[in-house]
Fold each of these.
Amino acid sequence: MAKSKTKTKTRHPSTESKKTERVYWLDHKRNVDKIFYGLVAVCIALFSADFFYHKHVNFPFENWPGFFAWYGFTCCVALVLLAKQMRKIVMRREDYYD
Amino acid sequence: MIDGLNPALIFIVGGALVPFVPQGFARNVYLLLLPVLSFVQLWTLPHGDFAVVHAFGLTLTTLRVDNLSFVFAVVFHIAAFLSVIYALHLRDALQQAVGLIYPGAALGVVLAGDLVTLFVYWELAAVSSVFLIWARRTERAYRAGMRYLLVQVCSGVLLLAGVILHVRDTSNPIFGPLSLDHLGGVLIFLAFGIKCAFPLLHNWLQDAYPEATVTGTVVLSAFTTKMAIYALARGYAGTELLITIGTVMAMFPIFYAVIENDLRRVLAYSMNNQLGFMVVGVGIGTELALNGAAAHAFADILFKGLLFMSMGAVLLRTGTVNGSDLGGLYKSMPVTTGLCMVGAASISAFPLFSAFATKSLIMEAAAQEGHWLCWLFLLFASAGVFHHAGIKIPYFAFFAHDSGIRCQEAPTHMLIAMSLAACLCLGIGLFPGALYAILPYPLDYQPYTVTHVITQLQLLTFSALAFAVLIRTGVYPPELRSVNLDLDWLYRRVLPTAAKDLWDTIEGLHQRVIDSAQQPIQAIVNTLYRHHGPEGRLARTWPTGSMVLWVAVLLASCLIFYYV
């Protein structure tokens, strides 16, 4: 562990003074967790909002509870998983064209 | 100001004179004044046709101001002005001159009233813009520029051929609605399609734009593709084929954007995706849809410009825009980070930001016309754009793991340009009525309804949740130093390899033909050599004694024959 730290310092000389550097709020993992759980709370609130107002929609399926929520979530997961598989076919070394 | 003076000429002539203005303060003032003067000229021009000339036996309207061209001309001025501010640190007359000539050519395109004038500015835009790529002055940029120029010139050639056929058939050079029923119309459509980065014709964009200079990419991002959107809206509004083309355009680039490492290339894919929305708008062709296409082009120029500016600032300060090498830059560049996030929120269509008020016009038009499948795909693309441009760009550049890079904040003039762009993004989001007022058709649309705000927030927050879950579970693909094969693979690898193989085959065949022809000749030569060569039987030297003997025999024979 100590070895790898030394290595990092050699690669980025600017990090040598890291110990004395200001520690930011996001440097603490617990704060990153707070953001994540905050996002989950917002998502739950927005999903629940569907039950408390009358939707003006163009297509009947938009009336399904939380349609936009699960559609957005599913699409993004599908997008990433498909793109990840695509990498197996299209990804090449950085100097492929050189 | 001056009756009938084309604002495009102020840019073009003014740009050509840049090298003659002393470098430094005077040149900076000059560069900033030109877009302002041109804008005043545009603003004071009444709607109508001007500068009508007769050439080639045709009546050419070189300047036309109407509702459709006006909105594009306004945003082109804003983009040119912002890019001049962004590039004030440059001491390169070439980039400064081209940074005005190229927007001027694009302006000429949207203000052209006839197809011949359109072609002239179309080509000028192509030729001038390549210098923004070559100005990087690297071998890689030179090659990318050559590929870019070939594609752009190809578009120009198609346009010229189409215009000639169209004018021959109709005797009318006016640039108005065109049809796909004639070959001329098809060729013009393809020419526009190349510039608009239609699927399979798109790869010049992702190939070339990220190879341009820090400031060059910002300028390039605003004009070529948007003038193509204008040209489509003018010529092919309501062409149903465009709905399919636009939907595919909005969909496929987002997959590439997820796995791309170069963040400026991610933005180029993202631009392709946003162009897809506009093309769908043009394809639907109703007043609402065309307003949506124009409004979204207006907003896109600003938020995409802002995102390219922020990535340009990162490139300037750190020397890279690879997601794999960046991270934690919010500590060094907090203002750039904030401004980038405004651009990210705008492109993602967050309420209060620009695309919320513009993209929804296209979505609404698609829904009203009953294109439910297209609408679902566009909704997918909306979630996807938030995923790769809204989150990925700021996350991997400014947050994620700390790369350890510590650098200066972006220069002040860059921050000013980005701040102005961010203000405009917010301004359109907060007061969309101001933009709606200059759209081509009257518009009565209220983006801020309870349904629209909540459903949009649901879509976006759950997309963000998906990103967060995938990152935390380690499923999200890491940023890797790599290139991804796209269509440019065909002309950068397959065709050159095939050409080399073909050449090798031809050379082999040629060798075999020569060999087979040489064989009999060689056999004759060998036979002659065997008999007459140094070791040949017929070339041997005979002993003197035998010579004397044979001479005696010959003489004796002569005597005998003489007496007989």
Note: The radius of gyration of chain B is 33 Å.
Amino acid sequence: MTDTRQEALIRDAIAAEADQAVDYRAVLANLHGRQPRRRPFALFAAAGLTVAAAVVAVVVPLAVDRSAAPSAVDPAAPPGTTTARTVLLIGLDGSTNTDSVVLARVGVDGAVSAASLPRDALVDIPGVGQGKLNSAYARAYAAAEAEGRDGDAAGVESLAQTVEALTGVRVDHYAAVDMAAFSTLSEAVGGVEVCLKSASRDEFSGVDLPSGRQSLSGPQALAFLRQRHGLANGELDRVVRQQTFLRALAAKVAGSEPAKLAELARLAGRHLRADPALNLVEFVGRLTPTVRTAIIPLGEVVDSENGQALSVDPVAVRAFMAGFFADGATGVPTGGFSVPLPATETEKPGRTPRHDDCVR
Amino acid sequence: MPADYDQFVTDRLDRLLRYATALTCDKHLAQDIVQDVLLRARQKWARIGAVDVPYLYVKRMVTNDYLSWRRRRAARDVSSTHLALDDLAPAVADPAVRHAERDAMRARIAVLPRKQRAALVLRYYEDSTDAEIAGILGCTEGTVRSHISRALHTLRVNENTPSEVLR
């Protein structure tokens, strides 16, 4: 193609414009210095569920990876401080639905307590009013994006405020995990053992599994974690599935060789977002394998504007959280919601799943 | 972080910044967009790194980011900012007539509708084919040709306008 004189001029002009570009070396330094962005974005559901497992399965290997190059120092939390920290674990479904929300506390002694907050819980969303827990993020996201602000940051902020108002616990950090991490990680560890009480098949999640003990990996692991339709207790059975799966995954990860851990770390790192202030190295340095999991107290199923929801009594939730997160608290938490399955108990990663771990 | 992501950034960052600057006519906006896109790309590198030409994929992310409605407000300011900056610069940076013409053309390109400018930059800076441009802009080749012919028409009509009017 032969350029006309005008085209040649256009080429020159565009090239001259391009020459105005900032020096790439400065941008390169910027990119290297930055954490993978404040936004927790495409993080998904299952992740959150027990920090216990999430921490062991995701954060620990990530930290192993990062330990060679410590992340930026947070002035508010210099390395070495040993105060208890709370972390809000957020799981998004790929758009803006927070399918799982977990509030975890890592005590001074490294013990982890993790409380699941069911997404259908009917709560007070600051500045909005009553709504399902999973609407807080989505609503703030949409509002912010419409104004040209960062929707993910607004979503996290709104969800954190909602959780703080509900539990009376201050949220120090957040972290979110991409659901896809569990497909990848389950494959990387050669499958995760679970046991189903009955065969499971559901087109929403794509799950198609026989009953009994089996090893899950890849897309079926993901489907297993996401299935909600067709389960007797719906969302709550899913929470139990996620907790069981994550414990089993944690057990496998905990028994891995260092080289394997490094590989898992790389895989996990792609799916985890945390706020820049969360110093993973320091955080993980004092973890112990002890993890307690629970579900906040729940009331009746009620009808809300957005379908059925679970009522919660803020007073009961606060009382429960105060006890559950108290320094030195051990053993089975009392007052939390219990699904008639091993949802709430003291666990140690590495323990062999028992037969009664079979889930719906 | 996969090593090939770092390699990609090292190899392509300069070119991406230049492309984005030509696209936006605003080097700071270009930097913001490229940084944002590369940070996002890092999260998805397992997938992006596996495509045939990661650079094309990332270039599309940069283009879409600029064309997305989120950037619209910023984009509106661009042309005026650009012209304002031009005002501050020496009227004719180089005494050569050729350069004066070129700078006048820069100013005219800067006020084109964004999609037309994107098509123009892809063809005349990135030397993309119509099919590639269509893939990046997410439209048909016919639309690409239409964007470009309209842009060329506008630039031709304006060609006779004394550059003083634009400045």
Note: Residues 34 and 62 of chain B are 6 Å apart (CA to CA).
